[in-house]
Structure formats: structure tokens, C-alpha cells
Write a structure and sequence with these properties.
Elements: H1 14-19, H2 22-35, E1 44-47, H3 53-62, E2 67-71, H4 74-83, E3 88-91, E4 104-110, H5 119-129, E5 130-141, H6 148-160, H7 167-170, H8 178-185, E6 189-202, H9 205-213, H10 217-225, H11 228-242, E7 249-261
Parallel strand pairs: 1-2, 1-4, 2-3, 4-5
Antiparallel strand pairs: 5-7, 6-7
Helix pairs in contact: 2-3, 6-11
The structure holds S-adenosylmethionine.
S-adenosylmethionine binds at residues 5, 10, 21, 25, 47-50, 53-54, 71-73, 76, 93-95, 110-112, 115-117, 217.
């Protein structure tokens, strides 16, 4: 499989991502890095880096020269490289990481595993590129209950179209034990699962809706592909579910994070 990604849902630029999932990925990054025990002196790999929410946190902790990042989306690779001079940013997939064995102390995948075509191969690759005793960590949203933005969106979408691809139904790794099971199957040790909570602020409903219209991720791709009349119904139903909120609002998000050790 090619190192670059033709998936239309990740072909928007870094700015489009920032206004949608970046609102949550940025505050998640320090919590995820803490949970993975990222500390000065380590070499770290950010797998599925996107425009670089986690890369930014890794650079702040470790310095650009100690950080590498890979992603299959050409616009995200370009955005991450432009935002992080000195970081080794490459096109690549989690299933075939373009780095040598044992090159890193820690390998991290923030909000990525649910998009990976062959998660077992990705887990083997994460293990391969980390030194013995090093750390592998991944986190994925709790789509069913813990991610208000996506929950509100998909509840509204399914109410209009019962076949809408609710991420809680179609994506893996948001439920307890799923990442841990993947890591156990890859022979990883000392597997520890915890929940990470963040929130994002919006000035008004239009700021929330603009995120979906950017076409990023499964929700954005679904939204922009709808006929205009159905998209308008979805917007109105989403606004109704959000309720009357004055002067901006915040939405909460919960990620399931698993940390493990390479044998
Ligand atoms: C929700 S974004 C997360 C980006 C970033 N880690 C963050 O926290 O903001 C999902 C990312 O996974 C990447 N991705 C999709 N398939 C992948 C694969 N097979 N291997 C590695 N990354 C992949 C996408 O290109 C996208 O950048």
C-alpha cells in the first residue's frame, strides 16, 4: 500500500483541521503525553500526526531534533513540516513505518488507530520501532458516550437517515479494552488503560457548524456529501439538540488512552 493517502476526508489543509478536530486534539496532546510518560531526553515518534497537534507538544518537551512524525495525508504532512522546523516529518502509514527498528523511546498515535486499515500490523510496527523497554501509547475518542461534538452530530444525522455511518457504530477502538486487546495481541506488556478528558470552546453555533462544513474526518465528509436540503435539516436538528446557548459554549470530549511497554 502506498505511503500516501487518497482518503478525501484527510485532504483538507491544516487550518480546516484546526477548526474542527484540532480544537480537541490540542488540549488532548499534553494529557496524552503525560499519560505516556514523555519526558526530556527521549526520542519520540508521532504516528498519524495530522497537522501536528501532538507534534507541537512533543517538540516543547523534547526539542525538534528528538521528534519524528509520519502521516499518509500529503496536506497534513506539509502542514506539520511547515509548523515544526527541524522535525523529521515523512509520508507514511502506521502499518509500514518508515523508520529503523528500536529507533525511539516512545511511539504515540493520537486519534489514529480507528482509521488504520490493518491495526494488527500497526501494533507490530509500533512495537518494532520502539527500543526494548520503551513505550507505545494510543488514544481514541469514546465515540458512544464521551465525545459530545460527534455524539450530537451523529444523533442528529441518524434521526434523519438511520443508515448514517455513526462513528460509534462503524469505528473500532473507542470501547473499553479494544486498544488493550490489540496491544496484548502484539505482545506488548504492562498494558494500562485510562480516560483523558478535554473540552473545546465555541463562540457560537456557526463556529461548530463551520467545522463540519470543512469536510474533515467521517462526520465532515458525510456532511458535505449530503444534498443541500438534507444538510440544512441536519444543521437545524443539530442546533435544536445543542439548545439555546448564549455567548458561546463548550463541549466535552473523552478519549480512551492505552499505554504499554515493548518487551
Ligand atoms: C483525527 S486525525 C489525528 C491527527 C493527529 N494525530 C491529531 O491528534 O490531531 C487522524 C489522522 O490519522 C491519519 N491516518 C489515517 N490512516 C492512517 C494510517 N493507516 N496510518 C497512519 N495515519 C493514518 C490521517 O491522515 C489523520 O492525519
Amino acid at each position: 500500500m502506498a505511503a500516501t493517502d487518497a482518503s478525501p476526508m484527510f485532504q483538507a489543509g491544516g487550518a480546516a483541521y484546526d477548526g474542527f478536530m484540532g480544537r480537541y486534539a490540542r488540549p488532548l496532546a499534553p494529557r496524552f503525553a503525560d499519560a505516556a510518560g514523555v519526558t526530556a531526553g527521549q526520542r519520540a515518534l508521532d504516528v498519524g500526526c495530522g497537522p501536528g497537534a501532538l507534534t507541537t507538544e512533543l517538540v516543547a518537551r523534547l526539542g525538534a531534533g528528538a521528534v519524528a512524525a509520519v502521516d499518509p495525508s500529503p496536506p497534513f504532512v506539509a502542514a506539520c513540516a511547515a509548523r515544526h522546523p527541524g522535525v523529521d516529518v515523512q509520508a507514511g502509514r502506521a502499518e509500514a513505518i518508515p523508520h529503523r527498528d528500536h529507533a525511539f523511546d516512545v511511539a504515540l498515535a493520537q486519534l489514529v488507530l480507528h482509521f488504520v486499515g490493518d491495526p494488527a500490523a500497526a501494533a507490530r510496527e509500533l512495537r518494532r520501532v520502539v527500543r526494548p523497554g520503551g513505550t507505545i501509547a494510543a488514544c481514541v475518542w469514546d465515540f458512544a458516550e464521551g465525545m459530545q461534538m460527534l455524539r450530537l452530530f451523529w444523533d442528529a444525522a441518524v434521526a434523519i437517515d438511520p443508515s448514517a455511518p455513526d462513528e460509534a457504530r462503524v469505528l473500532r477502538f473507542g470501547r473499553a479494552g479494544e486498544i488493550a486487546g490489540l496491544f496484548a495481541d502484539a505482545g506488548l506488556q504492562a498494558i494500562d488503560e485510562k480516560l483523558l478528558d478535554v473540552e473545546a470552546a465555541y463562540d457560537d453555533f456557526d463556529a461548530l457548524w463551520a467545522g463540519f462544513l470543512a469536510g474533515v474526518g467521517p462526520a465532515g465528509a458525510y456532511c458535505v456529501a449530503l444534498p443541500a436540503a438534507q444538510r440544512d435539516r441536519l444543521r437545524d436538528d443539530l442546533a435544536r439538540r445543542l439548545g439555546p446557548r448564549q455567548g458561546g459554549f463548550t463541549l466535552a470530549a473523552r478519549a480512551r488512552c492505552v499505554r504499554a511497554t515493548a518487551p
